[in-house]
Specification:
Blueprint (H helix, E strand, L loop, with lengths): L8 E5 L4 H12 L3 E6 L17 H8 L4 H9 L3 E6 L7 H13 L5 E4 L21 H6 L4 H25 L5 E6 L11 H21 L4 E8 L9 H9 L9 H12 L10 E4 L5
Parallel strand pairs: 1-2, 1-4, 2-3, 4-5, 5-6, 6-7
Helix pairs in contact: 1-3, 1-9, 6-7
Length: 283
């Protein structure tokens, strides 16, 4: 039987804000040494974005910050944390990131949380209909292209899988946890087709990884957050989501961090290959 290390080393990607930041703080509070990776992306919203996308502005602003505030908060609470900015869309950066973990904490990570996500709107329908209130200029700006496909899959599936492979090669402890973050739109996401498809691919890779890495004592699971307030949910959206959620509110980053914490615990040692919806009954 594999034994959890006294101080597990955790790598959390995309943890400079939102859900990733909450996960980093939660695991650090549970005696994990945490390395936070992040990559600051430009604002994805064009100047002619319709008003119903205005809530994205705050979210984009948060994504453009570094992780120093998260690291400082962890250290102030007595935890261990380091950070590195790195572009996961470049395959050559995957071993480099793992090297950062080993340099920072003297060993390979035991826990990998693939939270980083590339996101842009892209859609298949080239023309608006009478019932479609999306601005035509916005639609044309976000048509599906080879570039929009590759932008999503490079980070949301390929990088996550390469990190899983790298962890499996380097973690020789006999104990490991991999948690991948997906989306409720993975089965098909109109208007965000490549984002949804890339997360569906990640879910498939995760189920395969659970089978293939089990002999190493590594469990692999997927968490699907419901609508979670990380800056993008406007008041109108919050009201709609609340009405559609069994527990009567939108999610908070700590809700997802708690689910990750559970899967990293010994209580979850017999859980692997699962896609778990942490959404307050939204689905």
């Amino acid at each position: 039987m594999s034994v959890k290390p006294k101080q597990p080393i955790a790598l959390i990607t995309g943890a400079n804000q939102g859900i990733g930041a909450a996960i980093a703080k939660k695991l650090a509070a549970q005696n994990c040494a945490v390395l936070i990776s992040y990559f600051r992306l430009p604002n994805h919203m064009p100047p002619d974005a319709p008003t119903d996308k205005a809530g994205q502005a705050l979210h984009d602003a948060q994504r453009a910050t570094d992780a120093s505030a998260v690291v400082d908060a962890i250290r102030a609470a007595g935890g261990q944390a380091e950070m590195v900015e790195i572009d996961l869309a470049k395959p050559e950066n995957i071993p480099t990131l793992m090297n950062h973990v080993e340099t920072a904490f003297g060993g390979a990570p035991h826990i990998l949380v693939n939270n980083a996500a590339a996101w842009k709107v892209d859609m298949l329908r080239p023309q608006a209909t009478d019932e479609d209130h999306t601005q035509e200029a916005y639609r044309q700006h976000h048509l599906f292209t080879a570039a929009s496909h590759d932008f999503h899959f490079a980070v949301n599936s390929r990088a996550a899988v390469l990190l899983m492979v790298e962890l499996a090669k380097r973690n020789t402890s006999g104990w490991g946890r991999i948690i991948n973050l997906s989306t409720g739109g993975a089965a098909g996401f109109p208007g965000e087709v490549s984002y949804g498809a890339s997360k569906a691919a990640l879910e498939s890779y995760s189920r395969a990884a659970a089978q293939e890495l089990g002999y190493l004592g590594i469990t692999v699971n997927v968490i699907v957050p419901g609508p979670t307030q990380t800056g993008w949910i406007t008041e109108d959206l919050a009201q709609d989501f609340t009405q559609r959620t069994a527990l009567g509110r939108v999610g908070h980053p700590d809700d997802i961090a708690n689910a990750v914490s559970l899967l990293c615990s010994e209580d979850a040692a017999w859980i692997t290959g699962q896609v778990i919806h942490a959404n307050g009954g939204f689905r």
